From TrEMBL, chain A:
Membrane topology annotation: Peripheral membrane protein
Protein name as catalogued: AP complex subunit sigma
A family per Pfam: Clat_adaptor_s
Subcellular location(s) per record: Cell membrane; Membrane, Coated pit
Organism for this UniProt entry: Acer yangbiense
Primary location: membrane
Family note: Belongs to the adaptor complexes small subunit family.
Automatic annotation (TrEMBL), chain B:
Any Gene Ontology biological process: vesicle-mediated transport
Keywords: Cytoplasmic vesicle, Golgi apparatus, Membrane, Protein transport, Transport
Membrane protein topology class: Peripheral membrane protein
Region of interest: Disordered: 689-724
Name of the protein: AP-1 complex subunit gamma
Described function: Subunit of clathrin-associated adaptor protein complex 1 that plays a role in protein sorting at the trans-Golgi network and early endosomes (TGN/EE). The AP complexes mediate both the recruitment of clathrin to membranes and the recognition of sorting signals within the cytosolic tails of transmembrane cargo molecules.
Alphabetical list of Pfam families matching this protein: Adaptin_N, Alpha_adaptinC2
């Protein structure tokens, strides 16, 4: 299962942090700092996987943003890599050509999209269209 | 009303925060905002509650404390409208987690919302429950979630399915209620519901054997196989298409569930053979999505019951992966080969060269995997070339990789070395290259091996002499070198025991002393090295009479050392060199051969980190990933940490006992010191205090290693021994033992009754007391040990510890063998000085170790029944 999802920029600012396991706030900050340190300086040719404590982090960089998933050591790394990409496609579709500022000012919407995509640390929906449609319905209720 | 578009205040706040140029400015803005929000909360401002919550979430994300907003989330959830509820639940998930008491207050709102007529509100509640519910909430709300699994809207069904996963993970007892509804989900056509249903079934099977049996039945299993077949053969579906494959995520979830069902069940495995073969052969492998499916398929094939053909197919896929140019693919190949090695070691051996190349990869993730794998591939026949490759690579590898690499090299050299000379050669290479990364136990073991290889003493000491000339900064190498020069320095100088493979070398006595002098003066040498150097000098002073004066000068230089250990050695050794020339040569005789069996026995327990990290054990771990157990961290990211696991510390308890606050460690008197030639032996022991490996040799003093469960603590004790106080204390005791001037006990003082201090079914310990005249604080205790069992006890050692207000001295025991059935006894005299005489009674903790039929036995006890006024 996914332990947590982080979205950070190159400077290490957290743009989204979703934890599916309970952690103290101080521990969360430590985790965010460590994960950023781990991924930020890796050569693009390297694997997208780094071992982190007793788990592993699957990360992928899109422009200046790092999407990192912390998963169990026995999970399928390649599948989660694909999962990150699907999430980015959904964001891209929703914000039409997403950039970091979209995510900053609409952080609450990003959380809502994430909640339609992943729940309890597991994948909830694999269809981009289904999620975009669902978001449309929810927006109408506002 | 939309909280985010109506007022622009959230945007404004984000803008003003982004405009801050310094951290201090940002803090000021945040402080102001927080103050305003707190004021609004106090006034119970309803209109801006959602906006304030949104701002708090942003502030929280920046890392500022926001706990004062927690109650606002609950209020927002309790309000009627969807927008308020939505922001409330979002806040709940971000600002709280399952461990906060406040969360209990939300259970009721959640229950109402789960039964709400508006399905979007039900969705919100399910989402919150799935992400943060605690075990208690899981119990309370499970019936609602179970009911929602059959809800008409698929969005609710899939959320309920994932919510159920969280519930059964928190409370596994609830699993059986979910089996039937979960089975119904497997028949779904909607991909979202199907994928969550499959995930739920997978987790059910993990927590409940009942579920596992249920889903293994042909009617369920055949359905799953058919679903997978349909997905594999489905025509193009744009909605789920990724790189030409329809819903790879669904493929992967199905393969994973099949693996869980097929593991350990031959019939179930049979059912899925065909479809697995189809997936393995037909999936496109030019894109990541296809490779992800192949990878999952290989893992399933490796895990289910054996089918030769399929496994060949799987290993071939891994072979292809291994030669892929994409690093990610190579990484997963290495990962999976680790698992394959238990299935077909030969097939994996064929890829040895490629794997070895991966050890040298630039990417640390790949290197680490590859090294673990190489380690598993080592056997008697390939250890030499593999070791050579790795040692060559050691020279150029990254600093941060050297630790892992040396540990693995040392471990494989130790395990598979064909002969001693090869072992010594390789270890010297590693020590000269990366001696600072070598764990203590490893060079301790090397010294033990050297000591046992009597025909190689000369060779080794010369090789070390050469190595240390160029690698003086590698501390472990220096330690081994000075130990060997101290012991075998004469062979270094007069070329004793030359092997015909050696280059001739001429070393003068003063050259040899130079090495030790450099070591003692080198800035990076720590106290252990310096102490060992001191012992080496003492030994050389007798072996090289011509250098005796110079050695004395070096020794004397440390007499003002601030480190007690060094100061003491300096002064005592100086007096040995100066005043006791007649006995010096006997004192500094060569160490007796160290006992290999004892050492390796105790090592096995105390050295899990280097040796067994990935030896046999890793094969049993899921995915073959070997992980040193970093205890607190394991729990850190665990879902179930509200059932807070208590770190077990059995090993430490013992240490606390011995070194605890109120109990000061007392002297340990090894039984050996009563052996013939007692004087020399005691001194030999004395001379070796600072060098832990040496200490390990004398079997009887090895008491602590005897019992299995204490091994970890032994390592810690070892680690402690070079500290000045520990070393010095035992040294003083030993010296006392050497100078036999302890007064004979005389029965002049008042008489005290004897007590039975300790009695078990196998052993009795009685104490007789007497007081030396004119010293009421001191008590002499005559301890008598009687064996109550029909078997002889050997290697008998008695230890005692007393609180700080007491001082304890143990004289040597009368022997270390205790005849059976009370046909004799061991006696030992204890001298206790009570600084609180008349105020506090004596108290003592004891530990008795012995061997019974070569099995180690340990008995412990506390003695409280001392007569008063002692």
């Amino acid at each position: 299962m996914i332990r947590f999802i982080l979205l950070q920029n190159r400077q290490g600012k957290t743009r989204l942090a979703k934890y599916y396991v309970p952690l103290e706030d101080s521990e969360k900050h430590k985790v965010e700092y460590e994960v950023h340190r781990l991924v930020v300086n890796r050569d693009p040719k390297f694997t997208n996987f780094v071992e982190f404590r007793t788990h592993k982090v699957i990360y992928r960089r899109y422009a200046g943003l790092f999407f990192s998933l912390c998963v169990d050591i026995t999970d399928n790394e390649l599948a989660y890599l694909e999962c990150i990409h699907l999430f980015v496609e959904i964001l891209d579709h929703f914000f039409s050509n997403v950039c970091e500022l979209d995510l900053v000012f609409n952080f609450h919407k990003v959380y809502l999209i994430l909640d339609e995509f992943i729940l309890a640390g597991e994948l909830q929906e694999t269809s981009k269209r289904a999620i975009i449609e669902r978001m449309g319905e929810l927006e109408k209720l506002e | 009303m939309n909280p985010f578009s109506s007022g622009t205040r959230l945007r404004d706040m984000i803008r003003s925060i982004r405009a801050c140029k310094t951290a201090a400015e940002e803090r000021a803005v945040v402080r102001k905002e927080c103050a305003a929000i707190r004021a609004a909360i106090n006034e119970n401002d309803q209109d801006y509650r959602h906006r304030n919550l949104a701002k708090l979430m942003f502030i929280h994300m920046l890392g500022y404390p926001t706990h004062f907003g927690q109650m606002e989330c609950l209020k927002s959830i309790a309000s009627a409208g969807f927008p308020e509820k939505r922001i409330g639940y979002l806040g709940l998930m971000l600002l709280l987690d399952e461990r906060q008491e406040v969360l209990m207050l939300v259970t009721n709102s959640l229950k109402q919302d789960l039964n709400h007529t508006n399905q979007y509100i039900v969705g919100l509640a399910l989402c919150a429950l799935g992400n943060i519910c605690s075990a208690e909430m899981a119990r309370d709300l499970a019936p609602e979630v179970e009911r929602l699994l059959q809800f008409r809207d698929p969005n609710i069904r899939k959320k309920a399915a994932l919510c159920s996963i969280r519930i059964i993970k928190k409370v596994p007892d609830l699993a059986e209620n979910f089996i039937n509804p979960a089975a119904a989900l497997l028949k779904e056509k909607h991909h979202g519901v199907l994928i969550t249903g499959i995930q739920l079934v997978t987790d059910l099977c993990k927590v409940s054997t009942e579920a596992l049996e249920f889903f293994r039945k042909p009617k369920c299993l055949d359905g799953l196989v058919k679903t997978l077949r349909d997905v594999v053969n489905s025509p193009y579906a744009p909605e789920y298409d990724i790189a030409g494959i329809t819903d790879p995520f669904l493929h992967i979830r199905l393969l994973k569930l099949l693996r869980v069902l097929g593991q350990g069940d031959a019939d179930a495995s049979d059912c899925m053979n065909d479809i697995l073969a189809q997936v393995a052969t037909k999936t496109e492998s030019n894109k990541n999505a296809g490779n992800a499916i192949l990878y999952e398929c290989v893992e399933t094939i490796m895990s289910i019951e054996d089918n030769g053909g399929l496994r060949v197919l799987a290993i071939n896929i891994l072979g292809r992966f291994l030669s892929n140019r994409d690093n990610n693919i190579r990484y997963v190949a290495l990962n999976m080969l680790m698992k394959a090695i238990t299935v077909d070691a030969q097939a994996v051996q064929r890829h040895r060269a490629t794997i070895l190349e991966c050890v040298k990869d630039l990417d640390a993730s790949i290197r680490k995997r590859a090294l673990e794998l190489v380690y598993l591939l080592v056997n008697e026949s390939n250890v030499k070339p593999l070791t050579k490759e790795l040692i060559d690579y050691l020279e150029i590898s990254d600093q941060e990789f050297k630790g892992d690499l040396t540990a693995k090299i040392c471990s494989m050299v130790e395990k598979f070395s064909p002969d001693k000379i090869w072992y010594i050669d390789q270890m010297l290479k590693v020590l000269s290259e990366a001696g600072n990364f070598v764990k203590d136990e490893v060079w301790h073991a090397l010294i033990v091996v050297i000591s046992n290889a009597s025909d190689l003493h000369g060779y080794t000491v010369r090789a070390l002499y050469r190595a240390v000339q160029t690698s003086i900064e590698q501390e472990s190498l220096v330690r081994v070198a000075i130990w060997c020069i101290g012991e075998y320095g004469d062979m270094l100088v007069n070329n004793g025991g030359v092997l015909n493979i050696e280059d001739p070398i001429t070393v003068t006595e003063s050259d040899a002393v130079d090495v030790v002098e450099i070591a003692i003066k080198h800035h990076s040498s720590d106290i252990t090295t310096k102490a060992m150097a001191m012992v080496a000098l003492l030994k050389l002073s007798s072996r090289f009479p011509s250098c005796s004066e110079r050695i004395r000068d070096i020794i004397v230089q440390n007499k003002g050392s601030l480190v007690l250990e060094l100061q003491q050695r300096s002064i005592e050794f100086n007096s040995i060199v100066e005043k006791h020339q007649n006995i010096r040569s006997t004192l500094v005789e060569r160490m007796p051969v160290l006992d290999e069996a004892t050492f390796s026995g105790r090592r096995a327990g105390s050295l899990p980190a280097t040796v067994s990290t990935s030896s046999g054990t890793s094969l049993n771990l899921p995915n073959g990933v070997a992980k040193p157990a970093a205890a607190p961290l394991v729990d850190l990211l665990d879902l179930s940490s509200d059932d807070a696991p208590v770190p077990s510390s059995s090993g430490n308890d013992f240490l606390q006992d011995l070194l605890g606050v109120d109990v000061s460690p007392a002297s340990v008197q090894p039984g050996t010191s009563q052996a013939p030639k007692a004087g020399t032996d005691v001194l030999l022991d004395l001379l070796s205090i600072g060098s832990p490996p040496v200490q390990n040799n004398s079997t009887p003093s090895d008491i602590l290693s005897s019992s299995q469960d204490n091994k970890s603590s032994v390592a810690k004790l070892d680690g402690l021994s070079p500290t000045p106080s520990g070393g010095a204390a035992s040294m003083i005791d030993l010296l006392d033992g050497f100078v036999p001037n302890s007064p004979k006990p005389e029965d002049n003082g008042p008489a005290y009754p004897s007590i039975v201090a300790f009695e078990s079914s196998s052993l009795r310990l009685t104490f007789n007391f007497s007081k030396p005249p004119g010293n009421p604080q001191t008590t002499l205790i005559q301890a008598t040990f009687t064996n109550l069992s029909p078997n002889v006890y050997t290697d008998f050692v008695f230890q005692a510890a007393v609180p700080k207000f007491l001082q304890l001295h143990l004289d040597p025991a009368s022997g270390n063998t205790l005849p059976a059935s009370g046909n004799g006894s061991i006696t030992q005299t204890l001298r206790v000085t009570n600084s609180q005489h008349g105020k506090k009674p004596l108290v003592m903790r004891t530990r008795i170790a012995y061997k019974l039929n070569n099995r180690d036995v340990l008995e412990e006890g506390q003695i409280n029944n001392f007569p008063r006024d002692l």
